[in-house]
Specification:
Elements lengths: L7 E6 L2 E6 L5 E6 L2 E2 L16 E3 L5 E3 L2 E4 L2 E4 L9 E3 L9 E6 L2 E8 L9 E10 L3 E10 L5 E3 L2 E3 L1 E2 L10 E4 L3 E5 L6 E6 L3 H6 L1 E2 L6 E5 L9 E6 L5 E6 L5 E5 L13 E6 L5 H4 L4 E3 L4 E11 L2
Antiparallel strand pairs: 1-2, 2-3, 3-4, 5-15, 6-9, 7-8, 10-11, 11-12, 12-13, 13-27, 14-26, 16-25, 17-20, 17-22, 18-19, 18-21, 21-24, 22-23, 23-27, 24-25
C-alpha cells in the first residue's frame, strides 16, 4: 500500500537523520541523536497542517484567492475555505519526481504546468543535504520556463520543537524589527508596523502566554550574510535556523488554533522570500523573467545547551 506521503527517502549523516517525501517534495522527519528537531508525522499519516511543506509559487495566503496582473484577473482554488483564502501555493500535495539521491542528499523536482489561475510554467526543485556538523541544508528553487515574467514567492513550513517542556517553556530568539498586521478572523494583511517588544525577541523571549501567527521582517543581514532564529528549552537545547538575503520575511506560528494535541505543540519558523498576500500587496514579490531563477536556502541545526 502506498503511503499518503508517497515514496520515503531516508538520509543519514553523523547523528542526524531526515526523511523527505515524494508528496510535496517535503520533509517528514528531522532528528539529531534520536531527538526530534521538527514536528514530524507518521509514514501512514496525511501530513498535518502543512508540516514540512514546500511553499510555491506563493507562501502564506492570497486573500479571497484573487489577484490581478495588469488587466488580467485570476481566481485561485480556495484551499483554506474556513477563511476563504488560497493557502501556501500549488505544489504541497502533488507527487514530485526524485531527480537525485546520493548518500546524505536528495533532490525532488516538479514541473508546474500553466493553469487557469496561474498560467506561468515553472520548474521547482527541493534539495536536502545532511552534514554531520552543520545539520540539514534545505534549498527550494523556481525557474521560469515560460516566455513572460512570472510572479513567484518561495518558502518552507517546518515546525520547530525543543526536547523538553512545551511551547510555554521554550524561548524564541530572532532579530526582527517589523511585523505584517492582519485581521484576527481571516488573517487578511492590513499593513506593516513596528514589532512590539522587538528587543525582548532579539534577546530571547520565553513564550509563556505569547502567541504568534504572522510574518515578521526588518531582519538585519549581519556581516556574514546569515540570518538566524532559534528555539530552545530551559536547558538551552533546541534548534537553530540560518538563511540569507533571499529570505527577508519569517512567518512565526505558535500553533494556537491547531486541533487537539497539535495545539501549542510546536513553533512554525518559516523563512520566506515574501509575505502573505504578496500577489496583491506586491511586497518583495519576485517577478522572474523568462529563464530566471529564484532560490531560498535554509540550514537547520541542533543546539545543545
Amino acid at each position: 500500500m502506498t503511503c499518503p506521503s508517497g515514496e520515503q527517502i531516508q538520509l543519514h549523516a553523523g547523528a542526524y537523520e531526515a526523511v523527505t517525501t515524494e508528496v510535496g517534495g517535503g520533509l517528514r522527519l528531522l532528528t539529531y541523536d534520536g531527538r526530534p528537531l521538527l514536528m514530524s508525522y507518521g509514514e501512514n499519516e496525511i501530513r498535518p497542517s502543512y508540516a514540512g511543506a514546500v511553499l510555491a509559487p506563493w507562501c502564506g495566503r492570497v486573500v479571497d484567492g484573487r489577484y490581478a496582473v495588469g488587466e488580467r484577473q485570476f481566481e485561485l482554488p480556495l484551499t483554506e475555505p474556513a477563511r476563504g483564502q488560497a493557502l501556501h501555493g500549488l505544489v504541497a500535495w502533488s507527487r514530485w519526481r526524485l531527480t537525485e539521491h546520493a548518500g546524505a542528499s536528495a533532490t525532488w523536482s516538479i514541473h508546474l504546468v500553466p493553469q487557469p489561475w496561474y498560467p506561468w510554467p515553472l520548474s521547482i526543485t527541493a534539495g536536502y543535504a545532511l552534514d554531520p556538523d552543520t545539520g540539514l541544508t534545505w534549498s527550494v528553487s523556481a525557474h521560469n520556463c515560460g516566455d513572460e515574467p512570472a510572479p513567484v514567492g518561495l518558502g518552507i513550513h517546518p515546525y520547530a520543537v525543543a526536547p523538553s517542556g512545551g511551547v510555554d517553556d521554550w524561548t524564541l530568539t530572532v532579530d526582527a524589527a517589523r511585523i505584517q498586521l492582519a485581521t484576527a478572523d481571516r488573517l487578511v494583511p492590513t499593513g506593516v508596523a513596528d514589532l512590539p517588544d522587538a528587543e525582548s525577541l532579539r534577546r530571547g523571549r520565553r513564550l509563556a502566554g505569547v502567541s504568534f501567527d504572522g510574518a515578521v521582517t526588518g531582519l538585519p543581514l549581519p556581516g556574514d550574510g546569515v540570518r538566524r532564529a532559534s528555539l530552545v528549552d530551559a536547558n538551552g537545547d533546541g534548534v537553530e535556523f540560518r538563511w540569507g538575503a533571499a529570505g527577508p520575511w519569517l512567518q512565526l506560528f505558535t500553533c494556537d488554533d491547531l486541533p487537539g494535541d497539535l495545539r501549542r505543540s510546536a513553533v512554525a519558523i518559516e523563512p520566506q522570500t515574501c509575505p502573505p498576500d504578496a500577489f496583491n500587496n506586491g511586497i518583495d514579490l519576485a517577478w522572474l523573467a523568462p529563464g530566471e531563477h529564484l532560490e531560498l536556502t535554509v540550514e537547520i541545526q541542533a543546539l545543545r545547551g
